[in-house]
Each structure stands twice: as structure tokens, then as C-alpha cells.
Amino acid sequence: MQHLEEIRKFWHNAQDLGSLPDDYQSWKAAQKQDFLWNSRILKSKYDQLPPLRKIDIVSLFFTALKTKMDRQLDEAPSNWKKAIHAHGSVAKIKFISTNNTSFSGLFKGADYGLLRLSVTGDPSDRGFAPGLALKLFVDENPSGNFSALVSLVGQDKNYNFFANELSNIVPIAKSFGPIVTNLIFTRVTKYPTKLYLEDLGEIGQHGQKESKAYYPAQVFLVPNPNIKFAESPPHDFRNDLATIPTGTSVYTVYGVSQEEATDKNDNRQKAKIIGHIETTSEFVSSFYGDSQLFFRHQRFRNR
């Protein structure tokens, strides 16, 4: 009942908001971040956290996955429903690159972004399976986005969100649930366990186009070892995330180049530090962050 009340509360407050402004895409990166954070996320912040939902395989089957791959906007269609990763927490972030990175575009740094941390579904159903979605805003252009997982099966009964590294490429799992999910995603991509990073290398945060995009084949997000949450007993990860203070480096990002990457599961050893993801706000759980904030999945193309 509380969850339904939160939904009613949000839409009562959002009646005058409508969809994104018509000229939203032409805004500066800082303005886009400020608008989504203050006028959408904070205004729909939950007074009480809704219960985590199980993965909805039936809804996933009927989801317009082509939209997930191709939509260039930061807000989902009005009828969008998250069948997986339904609940999470969002923070404002900046990506601080290393001075010597050879990668281009947003990999050279971005001052304005959003990070959403979530689990695939209710951990009591299939175990605790962390994932993240990253959005880096660009002046007068669509944002750069990518998502990452620990694995398709998660980390069993370990409820520490920062226990393991995440990546945009994960091994194919042989258990029933991941097999079904992969089959659904093969309707729109030949590589359902991989996401491409090209769009983040094509343009810088001020809208400058790269003459030649140079981007990693795979990234690894290594949690800050100083952030430690309890592995047990079972508890809501969103309460853990709410304790992370502004100005925290949450992940160190490693990347392996297209030239060095292979399909032999040895890319982690070749990866070099690209930069760090640092929070510029607290983590907030909200109706907008769970329902309308949109992160594009870029189809993976074989090299």
C-alpha cells in the first residue's frame, strides 16, 4: 500500500511537470543534470522505500527492447516499465580521468553525470545481483550511457553492494534464468551479455566531436575498498547507499583497448586505470529514478 501511495503522491506533484522540455537536448550539461536532479528526482523522493520486486520475465518479453538500444533521450517513454532493475538509488557524479588516458571523448572526463545503482530483482528470489547505469551529460547533445554488472547470476547471499567489480561485458551464464533473459535480448542484439562504449568516445562533455573515436573494448569498475557494507543478514542495499557522503570516490575505472582485448577472459589483467567516479551528491531513491530516468544500452558490434 505504501508503494502505491508513493506513486499517487509523485503523479499528483508531477501533473504540472509534463515530459522533458522541448529544448532540453540543446541545454548545457550542467543544466540537464540540475533539472533532472532537482525537478525530477528530488521532487519524487520516496518517504518510505517500496519493496524490491522480483524480475518480471513476462514483462521483459513484451518490453520494446529496440527502444532500450536506440532511444537517445534521458527520459523513458511514458508507458515504460522496468522488468529488471526496478528499484535503485541515484547520485550525481563526475568522472575524473587520469591525465595520461589515451581514450577520447567522455573518457577524458565529465563534470556532470548520474549514477544509478540497483539489483536485478528481489535478492530473496535469485540472490543479490548488483548492477549500475552511468549517464554522462554533454552540452547540446545526447548523453553518453553505459551499464555494468557483477555477473548474470550475481553474488548469491552477499548483500555488500561493493563486494565485487562490475563490467560492461560479463560471461554467458548457464543457469535457467540468465538463459531465458539472454534469449529475449537476442531479438535486438547478437551479443546480449556485452555493451558497446563507442558513443562515449565520440564526443567530449562540451559537445566537441572527435575526429577519430578511441574507446575501450571493456571497462572494469573497481569499488572503493574503504566502502564496506555488511554481507549479512539480508538487508536493503538502498539504506546502505544513503550513508555514502558527497565527494566519495565510489569506483576506479579500468579499461582495455580494442587492440589488446581478446575473448579469452584475460582482459582484466591488461586493463589500465582510466579514471574515477566521484559522487557530487548523496544517493537518493525516488519514483522518477525508478520509472522514468532512462539509460541507453548501446548494441555491441564485433570488432
Description of the molecule:
The protein is of the alpha+beta class. 23% of the residues lie in helices and 20% in strands. It has helices at residues 2-13, 29-41, 57-62, 65-70, 123-126, 176-185, 198-202, 237-241, 267-270, 287-291, and strands at residues 88-97, 110-119, 130-138, 141-149, 166-167, 218-223, 249-256, 272-279. An eight-stranded antiparallel sheet has the order 4-3-2-1-8-7-6-5. The relative contact order is 0.20.
Q: Which band does the percent of strand residues land in?
A: 15-25%
Enumerate the strands of the largest sheet in spatial order, edge to edge or round the barrel: 4-3-2-1-8-7-6-5
Q: Say how many strands there are.
A: 8
Helix content: 10-25%
Mean pLDDT: 85
The H/E string reads HHHHEEHEEEHHEHEHEH
Radius of gyration: 18 Å
What's a concise summary of this model?
The chain is an alpha+beta fold and 303 residues long.
Give the helices and strands, then pairings:
Layout: H1 2-13, H2 29-41, H3 57-62, H4 65-70, E1 88-97, E2 110-119, H5 123-126, E3 130-138, E4 141-149, E5 166-167, H6 176-185, H7 198-202, E6 218-223, H8 237-241, E7 249-256, H9 267-270, E8 272-279, H10 287-291
Antiparallel strand pairs: 1-2, 1-8, 2-3, 3-4, 5-6, 6-7, 7-8
